[in-house]
Amino acid sequence: MGGFKLGKMTLGGLFKQPETVQYPAQVKTPPPGLKGHVENDVAHCILCGICQKRCPCGAITVSKPDRTWTIDRFRCVQCGSCVRECPKSCLTMEPTYAPPATSKHADSFKVPPAEKSA
């Protein structure tokens, strides 16, 4: 009985599309509902630090004196808490896969000074 199932799977695999892709040459389309990774539009960021306070795993660091916003993507669990709590809506969850990395590092972004309107 088990031989028939194995034979059916083997023969069925000959006529279907492969389940895998040859990754860097081909990129698999992201499934619906993929959260992806956090992106920051630093032009609109006011460095309020709410995203840092709401991050459950401590992946985000905000430094007002240095005007930097840093995320450790290896600590981020893609929960979206920072995106929901951002008052300026400058954080978004991009539905793409993060590029592969060979070493652990944190992505740091320099926030430009806010322009004062007259």
How would the blueprint of this fold be written?
Elements: H1 2-15, E1 37-40, H2 50-54, E2 60-63, E3 68-71, H3 81-85, E4 91-94, E5 107-110
Antiparallel strand pairs: 1-4, 2-3, 3-5
Structure, described:
The structure is a single chain. The chain is an alpha+beta fold and 118 residues long. It has helices at 2-15, 50-54, 81-85; strands spanning 37-40, 60-63, 68-71, 91-94, 107-110. It has a three-stranded antiparallel sheet with strand order 2-3-5, with no helix packed on it. A hairpin with a 4-residue loop joins strand 2 (60-63) and strand 3 (68-71). The chain is elongated and about 70 Å long. The termini are far apart.
Q: Kindly state the number of beta strands.
A: 5
Oligomeric status of the shown chains? single chain
> What percentage of amino acids are in beta strands?
15-25%
Strand order of the largest sheet: 2-3-5
- Order of helices and strands, N to C? HEHEEHEE
**Separation of the first and last Cα atoms:** 82 Å
The main β sheet shows up as: 3 strands, antiparallel
Task: Tell me, briefly, the overall form.
Answer: elongated
Structural class: alpha+beta
Mean pLDDT: 85
By DSSP (H or I, 4+ residues per run), the number of helices equals: 3
Poorly predicted residue ranges: none
Helix content: 10-25%
Provide the gyration radius in Å. 21 Å
